[in-house]
Design a protein that fits this description.
The chain is of the alpha+beta class and 384 residues long. The protein is built from twelve helices and 17 strands. It has two domains: 9-162, 2,3-Dihydroxybiphenyl 1,2-Dioxygenase, domain 1 (Roll), CATH 3.10.180.10; 169-380, 2,3-Dihydroxybiphenyl 1,2-Dioxygenase, domain 1 (Roll), CATH 3.10.180. The longest helix has 17 residues, at 364-380. The protein starts with 8 loop residues before the first strand and ends with a helix.
């Protein structure tokens, strides 16, 4: 257990996403995901910052999307090095000065001191930013004083535009990032951020077939801030076949370490996924053999019976995992943004949708179950 004093984090306030095409992301979030566009950058802010921003919300989930207006802005600097992706994670804190002081005493590297800006509603924002081991992704810490503004220079629309959250998105469950080596990040999260290890797993496809000549593996460690329950899942590739690991391939696609996906909670994943599929949202496929093996696997895991109809889970390609009787989770992954937009420069970031039915894990069993089901199908087809 960490003995480091907590920073006073309340929640992940928002993800700041940098894009080349703001309209494309607007269409995806409002028309397909049914997020509401609630406001954006003022003209004065755009003139000062050289980028245009819009804010999208569903439940307690907030995504700030920025596109460059010149080559001098933060969005442009990110996009010169990377495809589109999460360039900043914003945390809401109780006391920005205290968080700054704690980080300063632990060797945090600051982009600027605490700043205070008046907001559209008569309040103020106090904030500062730091560099991180998450590649070029920075952390910003916000203290909101009598304001709903997510960033300086924000102006709300008279009425939200776009969606009404008919798919029932609630909050960010966790954020997952990939590294070629994650130990420096884990030490930084413990000794600078004050987070603690929550969960870990290691998996490699050769665990099932040691004689195979290729494969993919990873090590994953989840850290959390117990007070706010903010969780970060973190992955690195595992040997052998390091270069074939999905984690290393992500690193090549993003051109560095960074955020791989954000998991968004819902109350009824079947309704959510059915609705999203109806809007043309595409998901990562699950082989049918996964569901052939699912009843036996649920018994082996000790979960037993679940409330959902297995035929409907098969139809929607929703995954199931858990570690004890009566407690499980349901999850599914959207295609990467590059696949959704048919554009490599849209980046490898994707969204996970998750419904927790008492289980607090991260779907470790699905790594193995998916591989076993693929192997079974390959044997049936005579490919191996």
């Amino acid at each position: 257990m960490s003995t480091v004093e907590p920073l006073g984090i309340l929640a992940v306030h928002s993800l700041h996403y940098y894009v080349r095409d703001l309209d494309r992301m607007r269409t995806f979030l409002t028309e397909r995901m049914d997020f509401a566009e609630v406001g954006g950058s003022s003209k004065a802010m755009e003139a000062r910052g050289d980028q245009r921003s819009a804010v999208f919300e569903a439940g307690d989930i907030r995504i700030v999307v920025s596109a460059p207006l010149s080559e001098r802005c933060r969005a442009a600097r990110w996009l010169r090095k990377h495809p589109e992706g999460v360039g900043t994670i914003n945390f809401e804190v109780r006391d920005a000065d205290k968080a700054f002081s704690l980080l300063d005493s632990r060797g945090g590297t600051f982009l600027h001191d605490v700043e205070e800006h008046p907001t559209f509603d008569g309040g103020s924002l106090r904030f500062f930013s730091i560099t991180t081991p998450f590649g070029d992704t920075t952390f910003r810490f916000l203290q909101r004083q009598g304001t709903e503004a997510p960033y300086p220079g924000y102006e709300p629309y008279p009425e939200p535009r776009g969606g009404q959250n008919k798919f029932g998105f609630d909050r960010i469950d966790h954020i997952t990032s990939n590294f070629q080596t994650m130990r420096p990040m884990l030490l930084w999260m413990e000794h600078v951020m004050g987070f603690e290890v929550y969960w870990d797993v290691a998996f490699h496809t050769i665990d099932v077939d040691p004689d195979q000549q290729s494969g993919s593996g990873l090590k994953s460690v989840v850290v959390w801030d117990p007070g706010s329950q903010v969780k970060f899942a973190n992955n690195e590739p595992a040997r052998p076949f390091f270069k074939q690991s999905q984690i290393n391939l992500f690193h090549e696609d993003l051109r560095g370490e960074g955020v791989q996906h954000a998991a968004l909670t819902v109350a009824n994943i079947q309704q959510t996924v059915r609705g999203l599929r109806g809007m043309g949202v595409e998901f990562m496929p699950t082989p049918g053999t996964y569901y052939d093996m699912l009843p036996e696997r649920l018994e082996r895991l000790g979960i037993g019976a679940i409330n959902e109809d297995l035929d409907e889970l098969r139809e929607l390609q929703i995954l199931v995992d858990g570690e004890e009787k009566g407690k499980y989770m349901l999850q599914i992954f959207l295609k990467e943004q590059a696949g959704l937009f048919d554009d490599p420069e849209a980046g490898p970031f994707f969204i996970e949708i998750i419904e927790r039915k008492g289980d607090k894990g991260f779907g470790a069993g699905n790594f193995r179950a998916l591989f076993e089901s693929i192997e079974r199908k390959q044997r049936e087809d005579g490919r191996i």
